[in-house]
Amino acid sequence: MQRRAFINRMTVALGGTMLGSSALAKTGYPEKPIRIIVPTSPGGATDAVARLFAEQVGKKLGNSIVVENIPGAATLLGVRQAASAKPDGYTLSIMANSFTAIPHVDKNARYKTSDFKGVSYLARSKMFLVVPAQSPYRTLKDLIDAASKAPGKLSYATVGVGTSSHVPLEMLSQEAKIELMPIPYKGITNAIPDVIAGRIDMMMGTGASTNALIESGKLRALAVANDQRLSFLPNVPTFAELGFKDVMYELYLGLMAPARTPEPILQALSQAFESVKADRALTERLALLDQELPDMHSSEQFNKFLQQDEQRMRTLLSK
After folding, report:
1. DSSP state, 118?
2. pTM of the predicted model, to two decimals?
3. pLDDT single digits (tens) 203-234
4. Secondary structure (DSSP) of 165-232
5. What's the pLDDT score for residue 157?
C-alpha cells in the first residue's frame, strides 16, 4: 500500500512538473522571492513544515521562498496580514484547522475563508486524548462518568477556541453530553507540564508533542480521534470504537493564497508544491515532525476539502 501510494504521488508529480513548467513559462513567474507567512512562532510543527517545503519548492521554481513568522492573537495577526496581501503570488501563507473555525466563533476575526484560495494540502498529523499518568481516569468511560457527575469541573488545556486543542473536545462534549472546563494557554507546550503534574485533567496530543511522554510513563493516552488505531499506539482505541463516532479530527496544514491571485499562478504554485511530495527524503523529514502526506493531489481537491471543513466547523461551533 505504501509503495502504491508513493508511485501514485510520483505519477502526479511528474505530470505536475511538466504542467508547472509550461504554466511558469507563460506567466514569467516568479521574478522575485516568494514570502510564506506562518501565523505561529518559530520552532513549532507549522513553522518546520513551512521551511521544509519552502526549501524544496524554492529549488524547483529557481527562486527563494522566505518564511516569515507573524504570531499573535491566536494566529489572527498573521492570517489578517495574509488576507490583505497583494494577490500576485508573492505572499502566501500556511494555515491549520483553526483557519476555518475561528470566523465562526470570533466576530472580530476580520477575515473570511473566502478571502483565500487553497494552493496545496501539505501535511497532516493524528490527534489523541491524553491524561496525566497518575490520573484516576484509566479509560475514556472513567473520564466521561466523572464529567457527567461534576459538570464543568474537569479541565482541559487549550490555546484558543476553534483550534485543534479545543475542537475535538468540543466534539466529545456534545456527543457525550458532558461539560468540560477549558483552561487557556499561549501554546500547547506551555500546558504540558501542568497536565503531567495533574493540575489540568486532560489535553489533545500529537505524536510530536506527547508520544515521548507517553513512552516515558508521564502521560497516558485514552482515545484516538482517527478512523483507525495508530501504529505507535496500537493498544489505544479510537473514539468511534468507544461509541463516539463524531469525534474524528486530524491536524492539517495547507498552503493558501489571496483569493484574487491569477489562476495561472495558482496552478503553477500548486503543481510545484505537489511535485516535491514525490521526494522520499521529504517524506522522511515530515515523519520526524510527526507529519504525513495527505491523499490529495490537486488544489481543486484541497479547496473542496476546505469548504467541507468550514461547513463542519460552522455546524459544530454554532451549537
Report:
1. E
2. 0.83
3. 999 988 899 999 999 999 999 999 999 999 99
4. TTHHHHHHHHHHT---EEEE-SSHHHHHHHHHHTSS-BEEE-IIIIIHHHHTTSEEEEEESSSS-BTT
5. 97
Separation CA 274–CA 17 (nearest Å): 9
Tell me how far apart the terminal alpha carbons of the chain are, to the nearest angstrom.
39
Q: What percent of the chain has pLDDT over 70?
A: 92
Q: 182: Cβ–Cβ under 8 A, 6 or more apart, which residues?
A: 155, 156, 158, 161, 166, 169
CA distance 71 to 50: 14
- Partnered with residue 38 across adjacent β-strands are 69
For the chain, list the domains and their CATH numbers: 2-124+251-317 (3.40.190.150), 128-224 (3.40.190.10)
To which H or E segment does residue 100 belong? Answer: helix 98-101
For residue 296, the model assigns a pLDDT of: 85
The grid cell for 61 is 521554481
